[in-house]
Amino acid sequence: MASNVLQQLCMGVTFQKQPRVSRDRIEKLAAAPSSLPSTKLKGKPEKVQNRIRTHHGIGVWADDIPAVVTDFEQLETRYQCSKQLVSNIVACGYETPTPVQMITIPAMLERREVLVSAPTGSGKTAAFVIPLVHLLGEPSTDGFRAVVVCPTRELAKQTYREVVRLAEGTGLRTYVLTKTSNAQKRFSSDMAKSLDIMVTTPNRLVWLLKETKLTLGRVQHLIIDESDRLFEAGKSGFRDQLVKIYEACDSSKLKRAMFSATSSKDLDKWCRLHLDSVVIVAVGAKNSATKQVDQKLLFVGTENGKLFQIRQILRAGVRPPVLVFVESKAAAKELYSHLVLDGLNVDVIHSDRTISDRDSIMEQFRLGKIWILICTELMGRGIDFKGVQLVINYDFPQSAASYIHRIGRTGRAGRSGEAITFFMESDAPKLREIVQIIRKAGCDVPDYMLKLRTKHLKNKLQPKAKTKLKEKTIETDRSAKLKRLKTSKIGLKGSKKMEQKKSKATLKKDRNPGTNSDKQ
Fold first, then answer.
1. Which of 165, 169, 392, 401 has the most CB atoms at less than 10 Å from its CB?
2. Would you call 387 helix, strand, or coil by DSSP?
3. What is the pLDDT of residue 371?
4. Using an 8 Å Cβ cutoff, are 238 and 232 in contact?
5. What catalytic activity is recorded (predicted)?
6. Do 233 and 279 share a structural domain?
């Protein structure tokens, strides 16, 4: 009884007396949710909704949880979405809603603010673009009414393409902010009023707000993609830029939505405090990898061992395309110089490459003209390459979130994939966290890895402080003489002090000659 109550609380269920539903009926609905009539779905008992969400691994925390959408045709009947939008969804290859789309689309269509955490490749982009296109409706001359913020330029361009596909035929105009020079000319006048949706990175948008006449006072929807990365403070994050963007979006009608494959406690806490009537969605276990990826750990010993192992893997034969992740630009350049000499169809992408080079490389990789692509964390988040068969973590990821996003470039949209991670003895302190992620995904992990003690490994691998060695002198004739001379000097000093004390004592006796005779 206690476990049932706890489960209901966790799923955000309100305690009301509900009509009884047979267990067979519940199992039937859970196994084939699309068979439930769309007109009666919301009127069914909350227990049925709860069962459907549990069946698909959907966790929801909110007041008045929206009913799930199990078929895209229900968008027309329940929310009066246009036939053009539904046909665009089908044309993009979406047959049935994924678990994250089942709950997020109705929540946003009901104008709720959301915080969504779902595995990589689960359809998060479409989950916010579909309701966005419907809610904006027709084009307007009021300026931007929706802003989508992404951490990298490559992800922004990918999201832009998805928006264009789903908004085709609606008249909505989308703009992707990639070159600040072109944008400065455009937004210095009133040309921005002819656009509806902006897809951008935080730095470029903040610069544009400062240098041009652009205002975001009409923005009704603010979407933050990869929100955990953007919410980070310091050099790696964009928290300061987000503050400026929030301040610029000062409309009373503003609705915010946060999406990511990984979540952080700071972000969860902030959203619970500041988002209005927020719906928190978690598909599957939080901060977990997709189960479609076969994950392996490979001990390589040294840096040279990494190069040997990757050559062995590639020579044994792999199905391209293949992504290889390294930690730095220098490491990417070095690995590329080795593999290109082996005659492999390989290229490298990092932030030092020009924008035109990066665009060209990504296009050639998508078309299959490049088989192996070496990249840094620049490509680790959100980028969707169709059919990536293998991801190799050449350098060990520095965090669990980085690992999840890296291997999430394969095994997308229900496809299978493989991920191989190299590790050395120096990576042992971070190994156990990655091992737990692999184990939760159902992949085999050696028992000894599960028993690793992180603190012990940190102390063991931490370089010990250098202690000064006591120097031992070898006595020579010269050193022996110096030593005797030194001791003799000390002896002389001591004897002089004793003589001075004796002389002082005799002076006292001479001054008081009768003291001793009186006592006698």
1. 392
2. coil
3. 94
4. yes
5. ATP + H2O = ADP + phosphate + H(+)
6. yes
Class of residue 519 by CB neighbours under 10 A (exposed 0-12, middle 13-18, buried 19+): exposed
Report CA-CA distances (Å) from 91 to 85, 94, 167, 201, 360: 10, 7, 12, 28, 26
Please return the burial class of 251, using the count of CB atoms within 10 Å of its CB with bins 0-12, 13-18 and 19+.
Answer: middle
Which residues span the domain enclosing 21? 1-55
Q: What H or E segment, with its residue span, contains residue 417?
A: strand 417-424
* pLDDT tens profile 384-434: 887 899 999 999 999 888 999 999 889 887 788 999 999 998 898 888 889
Instruction: Specify whether the CB–CB gap between 205 and 177 falls below 8 A.
Output: yes
Average pLDDT over residues 42-56: 78
User: Which CA distances in Å does 410 have to 57, 135, 199, 271, 298?
Assistant: 21, 32, 25, 30, 18
Single out the residue in 237, 264, 283 at which a domain terminates: 283
Rounded alpha-carbon distances, angstroms, from residue 101 to 105, 137, 429: 5, 20, 37
Mean pLDDT for 208-225 is 91
Indicate the number of domains in the chain.
3
pTM confidence score = 0.75
Query: Does residue 45 contact residue 18 with C-beta atoms inside 8 Å?
Result: yes
Strand order in the sheet with 58-61: 58-61, 279-283, 114-117, 255-260, 221-225, 146-149, 197-200, 174-176
Q: Within this chain, do residues 70 and 33 fall inside the same structural domain, yes or no?
A: no
Pairwise CA distance, residues 347 & 360, whole Å: 11
Residue 238 lies in a domain: yes
In a shared domain, residues 222 and 89? yes
Q: Kindly report the CA angle at 151 between 310 and 173, in degrees rounded to 5?
A: 125
Q: Which residue has the tokens 């737990």?
A: 436
Helix or strand holding residue 458 (H, E): helix 454-461
Q: Is residue 399 part of a domain?
A: yes
CATH number at residue 75: 3.40.50.300
Q: Tell me which residue has tokens 């009768």.
A: 514
At residue 470, the pLDDT reads 46
In whole angstroms, give the CA distance from residue 418 to residue 294: 5
Query: Are 154 and 165 within 8 A, CB to CB?
Result: no
Please tell me whether residues 346 and 332 are part of one structural domain.
yes
Q: How far apart are CA 256 and CA 258, in angstroms?
A: 7
Whole-number mean pLDDT of the chain?
Answer: 81
Residue 272 has pLDDT above 50, yes or no: yes
Percentage above 70 pLDDT, the chain: 76
